[in-house]
Design a protein that fits this description.
The chain has 152 residues and is mainly beta. It has one helix and eight strands, in the order E-E-E-E-E-E-E-H-E. The structure holds 6-O-phosphono-beta-D-glucopyranose (BG6).
Length: 152
C-alpha cells in the first residue's frame, strides 16, 4: 500500500505506517525524527494518542474506554457528528464515532503553501444507506484533515 497517497508529509524524515489494531481496524501511526508520535484510528476517525518529543502523552483517554466497535472510544480527539452529546435523536455524539472511516487519497492538501515541517492525515466518511435513513438530511461525505505540527 502506498502511504504517500494518504498523507501530506512535508518532512521526509517522518515515519508513517498503517497498522492493524486488535479488532482488525487500520490505524495511522506517525513518528517524528525527535520521537513525537501520533496514532489515528479509522474507527471513528479518532486521534487516540499524541505524544511530544519527550514522550509525554498530550491527550486524555478514559481508563473506562472500550476499544471495540461499535462502542466509541472515550478519549483522544473524537469527531462528534452530526450531533453533540444527546442534543439530537441519534446516539450520543452522533454516529461518526462508530463508523469505520477511510484514508482519503483524493483530497488536495489544505496547507499546500505552508512550508513548516508537519504531517497531515486525510480521512473521509461516506454515509451508508442506514446512516441516511436515521439522519436524512443528505450529505456527500465528511472530510477531516489532522495536521500534526510536531514533525520538526
Ligand atoms: O461516554 P461517551 O459516549 O464516550 O461520551 C464521552 C462523554 O461525553 C460528554 O459529552 C458527556 O458529558 C460524558 O458523560 C461522556 O462520558
Amino acid at each position: 500500500m502506498s502511504m504517500g497517497h494518504y498523507t501530506n508529509l512535508t518532512d521526509p524524515r517522518t515515519e508513517l505506517e498503517v497498522v492493524r489494531d486488535w479488532n482488525g481496524v487500520d490505524q495511522v501511526v506517525l513518528r517524528s525524527p525527535r520521537g513525537a508520535y501520533a496514532r489515528v484510528s479509522l474507527h471513528g476517525g479518532q486521534v487516540l494518542s499524541w505524544r511530544n518529543d519527550r514522550g509525554e502523552e498530550l491527550l486524555f483517554t478514559s481508563s473506562k474506554a472500550i476499544f471495540k466497535p461499535p462502542k466509541a472510544t472515550r478519549g483522544g480527539i473524537p469527531i462528534c457528528f452530526p450531533q453533540f452529546g444527546n442534543s439530537g435523536t441519534l446516539e450520543q455524539h452522533g454516529f461518526a464515532r462508530n463508523r469505520i472511516w477511510a484514508l482519503d487519497e483524493e483530497h488536495p492538501p489544505l496547507n499546500q503553501n505552508d512550508n513548516n515541517s508537519k504531517a497531515s492525515v486525510d480521512l473521509i466518511l461516506k454515509p451508508s444507506e442506514d446512516d441516511l435513513k436515521c439522519w436524512p438530511h443528505g450529505y456527500a461525505f465528511v472530510f477531516v484533515q489532522y495536521v500534526f505540527p510536531f514533525l520538526l
